[in-house]
Design a protein that fits this description.
Pfam families: Pus10_C, Pus10_N_euk. The chain has 530 residues and is of the alpha+beta class. It has three domains: 184 residues, no CATH class; 120 residues, Alpha-Beta Plaits (2-Layer Sandwich), CATH 3.30.70.2510; 108 residues, Alpha-Beta Plaits, CATH 3.30.70. Strands 4, 7, 8, 9, 10, 11, 12, 13, 14 and 15 form a ten-stranded mixed β-sheet that branches. It has a three-stranded mixed β-sheet with strand order 1-2-3, covered by helices on one side. A two-stranded antiparallel sheet has the order 5-6. Helix 7 crosses helix 9. The chain is elongated.
Length: 530
Amino acid sequence: MSSLSEKDRPIVQLLLSTGTCPRCVLRFCCVGSQMLYRHPHKDLMKDLQEFLKNSQEKEDTVCLDVADPPCKRIRLEHGEEGADDLNHNGAIPSADDGNSATESSAVKVCNVCLGILQEFCEPDFVKKVCQKVNSADYQFTSFVFSVSLPPQLSVRERAAWLGVKQQMRNLGLPLAKDDMVQLKEAYKWIIHPQLSEELGVPADGKSLFEVSVVFAHPETDEECHFLATACPDCFKPAKNKQSVFTRMAVIKALEKIKEEDFLKHFPCPPSSPKNLCDALEIQCNNGAVFVAGRYNKYSRNLPQTPWIIDGERKLESSVEELISEHLMAEFKADSFNFSSSGREDVDVRTLGNGRPFAIELVNPRRIRFTAEEMRRLQQAINDSSDKIQVRDLQLVTREAIGRMKEGEEEKTKTYSALIWTDKAIQREDIAFLDDIKELKLDQKTPLRVLHRRPLAVRCRLIHTMKSEYIDEHHFRLHLKTQAGTYIKEFVHGDFGRTKPNIGSLLNRTADILELDVESVDVDWPPTLAD
């Protein structure tokens, strides 16, 4: 085996004699050839046997000048008789003991990887994974493969490493753990080409489509527990974690624990388990897709998002639901997240070019849509309800959504308010409003939203106003304001919490009867041709 050198022989002998699989042996010997790991398990075992045999023959040749070597048959028999004792004590076997050990360990579960680099690299398991992927009916052009390993693997790897380290120290040979190939990396080297061939698409670390396998090994679950006593600071309960023995916590503890303390609690080398790992879960997940557009709301009895108080739904639908139900069905997503540039009250209409919105579709099965298909989807939304209309529906990136949020406080909004006054008014009574520019307001959090917004005084600007007289008690006011201005409170004053207000400016009681949003001046998403 050209990737191994004479200095690797004691490592190969020790690991094979203690029940380590050929691929883990290569990892501990710091072999970085991806192709070598892809060789069949039996071939690798045969190659390692040959390597040990050739190394021993060279050693025997050198010894001929000193003394005649003992009969090979006697050595073999002696090795077989004492193999159990030698292996149990972690002593280096002779080359022939190595051969005997490799033959018996071929059917054993690896004492380091617990079978992950054995059974779970075989074509049958790869086909099982691919069947799961294909049955999930996802659209994808590449994939990224992730694997979740039992945390006790790190403990076993440390134990095996300490055994190798001790042996090399006894022989006076140097050893560098930094170069050891990580289990996940070796597994992906083996599995990627097989998955790629079976699925017909390349593996790509930047792919949004993830295939993941979660491994567990119940037989050895408790092997991490001694670390909690030795390093209690590393194991703290966390939200959404079923156990404190996470892989990262175990690795952190292994970095802190002293070698002598570790060896007191864990066998070195680790013992061979009876059972293989279990592939608990094989899951698929597509990265989120983002759809943006603008919506008009024509109803004065429709909330933007579901209106539910104490578990009771107040109104049957919402803008969010009327749009998202069509997108969820077409993209075949698990769930969605709705966001928009501001929001209007349930009794406020949104007219003009509409309000920008974006919907994140989580784990969609379908991700590719042509411009024509998006137009048809937009039309389906518009045909389904007379309460809303959608325009400029398009696929966007996650980064692009930031442009919508940036404009929330910086941009302007235009409103039209129907106002009532208790005292009769004439045209000249309201004409002065047209001349007011950049009116500064101090708005204390409105009483109606105080249950969900922190108490604060917000400074806002009314850029311009234009009045439209209707009759002695009614007029319409067109306002251009800073985003985030509470218009209803600017009209009636909210018991003096907004100053100044239309009531105080007119020196009479004023109230708002109707409010429409006429424009949201955020230049996003891009306008599409009809």
